[in-house]
Amino acid sequence: MLVTILIWLIALFIIFMFADFTKANLDKEGKGLLIFQIVRPTHKILIERSGNFNRIGGPGLVWHVPIFEKVYKVDIRVKPVDFPAQTVITRDNASIKIDALILSQIVDVEKAQYRALFLDTIIRNVSMSNLRNIIGELTLEEVVSSRMEINERLRQALDNLADNLGARIVRVDIQDIALPDDIREAMNKKLIAKGERDAKIIAADAEAEYDKKVFTTVRKYKPPEEWLRLKSIEALEKMADGKATKMFLPMNLASILGPLEALKETLIERRSDSRALEKGDLPPLEDKNQ
Description:
The chain is an alpha+beta fold. It folds into three domains: about 10-75, no CATH class; about 80-180, Tetrahydropterin Synthase, Chain A (2-Layer Sandwich); about 185-275, no CATH class. It is built from eight helices and nine strands. It is rod-shaped, with a radius of gyration of 46 Å.
């Protein structure tokens, strides 16, 4: 009886020793059991028997033999891949810094365990290389305006690699494109000039539309000739404001200014008569009754 108890104690000691070793490889949070392992939905475990792959367990209650089997815990949640800001050169030799976000997830525990030693490092280095190649094919203006295209091309390049390593690329996103100060200033000036040009085009289109409506109204209602002459004079006044470098005069300028010239001569004659009357130089008026 005593021998049996001693054998059980030795067996339990060995089991505890191997269980602690197995638990250290399996669960750093200290939730492992001797024979049964509770696996959360966020993880899976890979079980080896005699050094060979045996099975994938989890989530839930998973059993294993502590002495003959070794287990490894694998996190299957989506996690970000550290991607520091990279200095890249565009096709037109502009040096810029790009910061990206890469999200990956393990979907095949066996491939991820046996084919990749440092999966995150591999994804990060390959993404850096592919990003330099993609940016090198684009100009600076294309890089700034084609973020979605860059994201898609980089994700496709990483998908082939990640699939062979038991993972998938959930998302690739270019977060920031840092431009040098001189390039940013030049682009701002270009945008301001483009905005001013568009404003002038819109104003010219509006003026042309207004002129078209006025012309249609004139043809439809036939306003008096005096009103047309007045509008013509107003148009000449706007043309002669000093801002235009060229002036186009209408062919009927004489007919427009004719009444004004006659009015001017009449005013001059009246002014001359009033001055002569004040000085007494006017000849006496003839009597019509004689």
